[in-house]
Design a protein that fits this description.
The structure is a single chain. This protein has 13 helices and 18 strands. It is globular, with a radius of gyration of 23 Å. It is of the alpha+beta class. Helix 1 crosses helix 3, helix 1 crosses helix 13 and helix 4 packs parallel to helix 12. The protein starts with a helix and ends with a helix. The longest helix is centred in the N-terminal third of the chain and has 23 residues. 43% of the residues are buried. The strands form four sheets. Strands 1, 2, 3, 6, 7, 8, 15, 16 and 17 form a nine-stranded mixed beta sheet that branches. The chain has a four-stranded antiparallel beta sheet with strand order 11-13-9-14, with helices on one face. The chain folds into two domains: 283 residues, 3-Layer(aba) Sandwich (Aminopeptidase); 123 residues, Alpha-Beta Plaits. The protein is 34% helix and 22% strand. Bound molecules: ligand BES and zinc ion (ZN). The site of ligand BES has 15 residues, from loops.
């Protein structure tokens, strides 16, 4: 079947494809905030209708959280599963957005034309690259060159709590030859990539309580313990002066990079000054003696994502607070065991608590790191197909982010995953003014058409 005709169709249909993406972007499907539950449902409905219009037998399937969208399309050739997520991150701080995050717009910028909206890159724009490639293929040839299962989730940004039970219950239906995941990035604007390593993630929230009510900091200050000071001391002690994490046993299972991978990454020509310079920084701030690329791709981290406590409103209030909280996430590599780290972290905090203080913990997801074997034939075929579309040859790269599902495909379904995406470092995912380059969208669709041809 001719690939050229499909590519030509993709080019002429780009304005319509962009309009369809804009429709999906108008739905504020923020999974972590219960206020947007109905919107998550609406995004799932939109996808069901869109896939059905392609002849994919699609259903919205309930879970205890947000629904899954599962669709099947018969065809000859290998059985491919496609995964993406329709949920998005919260938009705050809203005042830093230049426009309504759910009123998408095409904009011209010094670095090219972009689609600006929450979810434009992570992950609605990316997931639609695959859907649009299928649409073009179907329009030109009447059928696809493979059998397809779509598996779209609405809880990725909140740790995918319903995913494992759903996959276990529906394993026979979801099992396929290869799982394509479109939720990662290019290496840079010329170099497409297949991501072969993802970091794992452990989320922990802790609340420290001291006095049983907020106090006047003049009347009690000095005599009463202040939970914000206790929390600060605990947080400050999580790293030593060389940037290493101090939780007992934390580095168990953290491997050193193989020489082969070190050489391969060296060959990518990553520019740390540019990477940091693009966000107003100049110095890598992780473990001493490690390169910036190692810090983001192959070393574990402990980061405080938020702190609350006391008076944070306008003006000044001399309060000695009763409580202080922090949200802390750990990125994990190698075979680090998230549950063991959770246990050791909680014990370390307990051991540091002064008299009269208590701590409560709540966990937010715990998933190990993923490493994907590139030696199977589909990897080389897909890499070649990507190289045919982009200016430079495709690279195998690492990724500092986490995609909880990636490890589960192999573990639960016995289906190997392959991670291909077209996001860029400056897409501002999870931040104000998120965007997706129109070029990422367009060439992303074309890339999938080529990959479908190559894999079948
Ligand atoms: N698409 C991202 C993962 C990602 C991040 C890929 C950076 C490439 C570069 C994904 O949607 C994401 O943000 N995942 C969360 C997972 C979490 C909320 C459970 C993450 O990594 O923080
Ligand atoms: Zn994502």
């Amino acid at each position: 079947m001719s690939l050229d005709a499909v590519l030509a169709r993709i080019d002429t249909d780009l304005p319509q494809a962009t309009d369809r993406l804009m429709e999906l972007l108008r739905i504020p499907s923020i999974s972590t905030d219960p206020a947007y539950k109905a919107d998550c449902d609406r995004a799932a409905d939109w996808l069901v209708a869109d896939l059905q219009s392609l002849g994919v037998k699609t259903e919205k399937r309930p879970t205890p959280g947000h629904p899954m969208v599962v669709g099947h399309l018969d065809g000859d050739g290998p059985h491919l599963l496609f995964y993406g997520h329709y949920d998005v991150q919260p938009v705050d701080p809203l005042e830093l957005w230049d426009r309504d995050p759910f009123d998408p717009e095409l904009q011209d910028t010094p670095r090219g034309r972009v689609i600006r909206a929450r979810g434009a890159s992570d992950d609605k724009g990316q997931l639609m690259t695959f859907v649009e490639a299928c649409r073009a293929w179907k329009a030109v040839h009447g059928s696809l060159p493979c059998r397809l299962t779509f598996f779209l989730e609405g809880e990725e940004e909140s740790g995918s709590p319903s995913l494992v039970p759903f996959m276990e219950e529906n394993a026979a239906e979801l099992k396929s030859d290869l799982a394509l995941i479109c939720d990662t990035g290019l290496f840079d604007s010329r170099v497409p990539a297949i991501t072969t390593m993802l970091r794992g993630l452990l989320g922990e929230e802790l609340t420290i309580t001291g006095p049983d009510k907020d106090l006047h900091s003049g009347m009690y200050g000095g005599a009463a313990i202040n939970p914000i000071r206790v929390l600060s001391r605990i947080i400050a002690s999580l790293h030593d002066d060389t940037g290493r994490i101090t939780i007992p046993g934390f580095y168990d299972g953290v491997p050193e990079l193989s020489q082969e991978l070190r050489d391969q990454w060296q060959g990518l020509g990553f520019d740390p000054d540019r990477f940091l310079g693009d966000v107003g920084l100049s110095q890598p701030a992780g473990e001493q003696g490690r390169s910036a690329l190692e810090m983001i791709w192959s070393r574990p981290t402990c980061e405080v994502n938020g702190i609350t406590g006391g008076y944070t409103g306008a003006g000044f209030k001399t309060v000695l607070p009763s409580k202080a909280s922090a949200k802390i996430s750990f990125r994990l590599v190698g075979t680090q065991d998230p549950l063991k780290i959770r246990e050791n972290f909680r014990q370390m905090v307990q051991d540091m608590l002064p008299p009269d203080c208590a701590v409560e913990f709540s966990g937010h997801g715990a998933g190990p790191a993923g490493m994907f074997d590139t030696s199977s034939p589909p990897y080389e075929l897909a890499r070649q197909a990507l190289s045919d579309e982009w200016p430079d040859e495709a690279a195998y790269i690492g990724c500092g982010g986490s995609i909880p599902i990636a490890g589960h495909f192999a573990e639960i379904l016995g289906t190997p995953p392959m991670l291909i995406g077209f996001g860029k470092d400056d897409d501002q995912i999870h931040s104000p003014n998120e965007k997706y380059d129109l070029e990422s969208f367009h060439k992303g669709i074309r890339s999938w058409a080529r990959i479908l041809a190559a894999l079948s």
